[in-house]
């Protein structure tokens, strides 16, 4: 499984069966994914229920040993995995792309495995000693997206395994091969039944959500689908960690050096061609530095090459699917029609094969334009001019999303004073979107609830238990 061909052959159905998965850069067939049924899911859940107690009984040390060996397996197959990610999802091999994602899978697995979660002594006096422990939930259902398919799968799988749970994974229909590959690599070390992937249809997703034997749902995706997941899991009172949509604001204060922040602003917005929930999606710039920031952003953006992800010189790739391309195109066209000024892009080659939409910067845009208020999830950044800080904080907080935000300033203490006033799960200072396996991450409002990563993320994959006495 250390070559692209070997890894692909390990996950494709025999005899050329299954559903064809296409390359978003070329529309060519990458490989074929199995189409699992609800009956397949029932067998997987039953196997997980059977395997989970023995997995939990290994204890933390036993599970860590196996998970670290599995991380070594990912390292061995990292290039093959990256090739699958690139061909299926579209992100380039280089830059913050497919090799970055594959490497992140191994790093995050190791971090989750080795994070300690000691019992917390909550009372210890002459009368009482009480400790807070976290035990395995049982079976976890992990439903993932198509933008970072392998890495987000690991974000869901790794802490669940670390806490002694079995996991049933459902990947996006657009990017099942990446997740099938990750699971195949991990299962070289994991006991049978502990981790299963179901590459099925909507009926499979619906059954995972409502299944009485699944005690926890990890869901990453759109807010609307997240709301449906919450409703459909309610009868079982299933635990949930939903990471949903975002429309992250960035506020640039007048004391910045525009050239110094241009690269950070760009990658905050355009990493993964803008297909990241916690990407910078609406940029508010003070009028005193507005033109300089716009110019510096444009100067940097033109240096970043977009192309087929398999081309070693590409740093940005296509959008993963045509419906997302159409959303971005529609929002940019509406902004152009409203009189907004296009600094760069906004002119897709509609005859080109693949889902390429050019890097697009839109200035002089109304703060209530749809491109500002709606999550575009693509390579188009609206840049809004402001003059009043109180007003721009109000605008940053006005939407129902609350995943991330950022404040950019030459005075870090000034930025830190503003950050708590922004209603978002994470507020970055002079950067945007960076995550770390030990720093908790999660949204508020309609961007979801609960935390992932670090010790707090592990707690979300366990059930609390008080030992009193």
From TrEMBL:
Keywords: Oxidoreductase. SUPFAM superfamilies: ALDH-like (SSF53720). The keyword Cytoplasm does not apply. The keyword Acetylation does not apply. Pfam families: Aldedh. InterPro entries: Ald_DH/histidinol_DH, Ald_DH_C, Ald_DH_N, Aldehyde_DH_dom, LUC3-like. Gene3D superfamilies: Aldehyde Dehydrogenase, Chain A, domain 1, Aldehyde Dehydrogenase, Chain A, domain 2. Residues 19-459 form the Aldehyde dehydrogenase domain. It comes from the Bacteria. CDD domains: ALDH_AldA-AAD23400. This is Aldehyde dehydrogenase family protein. It comes from Luethyella okanaganae.
């Amino acid at each position: 499984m250390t070559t692209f061909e070997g890894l692909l052959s390990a996950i494709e159905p025999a005899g050329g069966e299954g559903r064809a998965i296409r390359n978003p850069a070329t529309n060519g067939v990458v490989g074929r994914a199995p189409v699992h049924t609800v009956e397949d899911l029932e067998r997987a859940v039953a196997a997980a229920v059977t395997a989970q107690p023995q997995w939990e009984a290994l204890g933390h040390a036993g599970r860590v040993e196996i998970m670290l060996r599995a991380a070594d397996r990912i390292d061995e197959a990292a290039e093959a995995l990256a090739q699958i990610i690139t061909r299926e999802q579209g992100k380039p091999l280089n830059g913050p792309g497919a090799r970055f994602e594959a490497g992140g899978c191994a790093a995050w697995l190791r971090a989750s495995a080795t994070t300690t979660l000691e019992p917390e002594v909550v009372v210890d006096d002459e009368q009482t000693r009480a400790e807070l422990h976290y035990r395995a939930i049982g079976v976890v259902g992990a439903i993932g997206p198509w933008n970072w398919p392998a890495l987000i799968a690991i974000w869901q799988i790794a802490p669940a395994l670390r806490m002694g749970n079995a996991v049933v994974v459902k990947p996006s229909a657009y990017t099942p091969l990446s997740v099938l590959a990750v699971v195949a690599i991990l299962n070289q070390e994991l006991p049978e039944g502990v981790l299963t992937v179901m590459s099925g249809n909507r009926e499979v997703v619906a059954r995972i959500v409502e299944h009485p034997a699944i005690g926890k749902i990890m869901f990453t995706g759109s807010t609307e689908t997240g709301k449906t997941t919450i409703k459909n899991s309610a009868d079982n009172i299933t635990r949930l960690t939903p990471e949903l949509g975002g429309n992250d604001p960035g506020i640039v204060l007048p004391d910045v050096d525009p050239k110094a922040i241009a690269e950070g602003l760009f990658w905050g917005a355009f990493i993964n061609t803008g297909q990241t929930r916690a990407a910078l999606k609406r940029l508010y710039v003070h009028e005193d530095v507005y033109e300089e920031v716009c110019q510096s952003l444009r100067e940097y953006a033109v240096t970043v090459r977009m192309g087929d992800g398999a081309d070693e010189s590409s740093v940005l790739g296509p959008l993963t699917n045509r419906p997302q391309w159409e959303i971005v195109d529609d929002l940019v066209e509406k902004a152009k029609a409203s009189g907004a000024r296009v600094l760069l892009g906004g002119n897709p080659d509609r005859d080109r094969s693949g889902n390429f939409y050019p890097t697009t910067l839109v200035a002089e845009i109304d703060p209530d334009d749809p491109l500002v208020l709606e999550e575009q999830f693509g390579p188009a950044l609206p840049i809004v001019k402001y003059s009043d800080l109180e007003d721009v904080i109000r605008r940053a907080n006005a939407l129902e999303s609350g995943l991330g935000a950022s404040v950019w300033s030459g005075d870090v203490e000034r930025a830190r004073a503003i950050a708590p006033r922004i209603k978002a799960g994470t507020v970055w200072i002079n950067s945007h979107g960076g995550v770390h396996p030990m720093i908790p991450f999660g949204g508020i409002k309609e961007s979801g609830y609960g935390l992932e990563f670090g010790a707090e993320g592990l707690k979300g994959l366990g059930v609390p238990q008080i030992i009193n006495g």
